[in-house]
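Hi! If you just cloned this repository, the fastest way to understand the data is to look at a raw example. We've pasted two of them here, unedited. The first protein comes first, obviously.
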Amino acid sequence: MQTENRFFDDLAKVVNGAVGSLAGMGREAEAAMRERFKEFVGGMDFVSRDEFEAVKAMAAAARDEADALKARLDALEKGGKPAAAAARKAPRKSSSGA
């Protein structure tokens, strides 16, 4: 025959309550630490991955455009008139008559 012992029932309730409270405190401490870490990292002026990827794409596009313009300039210089190239290299005379 089983006897009812209120002492053990009360002890089990107290232990369950203590474990639940400790788990809650752990969750709160973790959330607080996450928040402090976010503030710390945010204060260091790091960029997000999205911002980095956007700037990387802009730099690649600018590099491609510069390469295309350089190729176009090289083609124009090769196909240009020799007289125009000589005129660019010759010093200009002043119009003051001196």
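Ok, and the second one:
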Amino acid sequence: MNRTVLTSTLAAVLALGLAPASTVASPDMLVKVKQGGYPAQNCQYCHVAALPKKDTFKPEDLNERGKWLLEEKAKQNANAVNLDWLKNYPGGKEQKQ
């Protein structure tokens, strides 16, 4: 699957699947990150908890990568987190698989 199709699909999923708060992640995001070649094993790739709950989410529940993505969302004045931003994550450049 090429990047354009992946990015378009992700954008559609995010636009349709997230509540107005749009800081809430979904299992689909983990799938998309894995498909993007990143070494994510579970939600702890961006969250502190392995299975975060939407109804109790707080920004403090994010790890450094998750907080960085949330900051990027605010910096870019975006409605939702764009997982393509991970390629610019400065905290420990991991190799895509």
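That's it. A detail worth noticing about the second one: The chain has three helices and no strands.
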